[in-house]
């Protein structure tokens, strides 16, 4: 089964990255600071969408977006931190001094 490729939306008024899938939203909430840091605080995938790799795709696209913006990442969300543990290449965008 081919995975769908979802479009990443940076919903800055609501401070979250989103995939809009039908009438549902998978999201990662964030806090951006004035000095170029982004804190990923919470990941949420609707129960009906679980098990389809949507959370992982969302994290991957968010990390790519953060890298493009040259922000320093602080992954407070355990789901994001776990993803980075499995894909240690992404440590390159994590703020120095943060242990994952």
TrEMBL record:
InterPro entries: Acyl_CoA_acyltransferase, Gcn5-rel_NAT, GNAT_YJDJ. It comes from the Bacteria. Signal peptide: none annotated. SUPFAM superfamilies: Acyl-CoA N-acyltransferases (Nat). The lineage of its organism: Bacteria, Pseudomonadati, Bacteroidota, Bacteroidia, Bacteroidales. This is N-acetyltransferase domain-containing protein. Residues 9-95 form the N-acetyltransferase domain. It comes from Dysgonomonas alginatilytica. PANTHER family: BSR4717 PROTEIN, PROTEIN NATD1.
């Amino acid at each position: 089964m081919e995975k769908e490729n979802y479009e990443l939306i940076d919903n800055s008024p609501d401070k979250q990255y989103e995939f809009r899938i039908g009438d549902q939203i998978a999201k990662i909430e964030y806090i951006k600071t004035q000095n170029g840091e982004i804190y990923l605080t919470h990941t949420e995938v609707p129960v009906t969408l679980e098990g389809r790799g949507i959370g992982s795709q969302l994290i991957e696209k968010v990390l790519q977006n953060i890298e493009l913006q040259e922000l320093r990442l602080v992954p407070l969300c355990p789901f994001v931190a776990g993803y980075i543990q499995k894909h240690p290449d992404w440590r390159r965008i994590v703020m120095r001094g943060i242990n994952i």
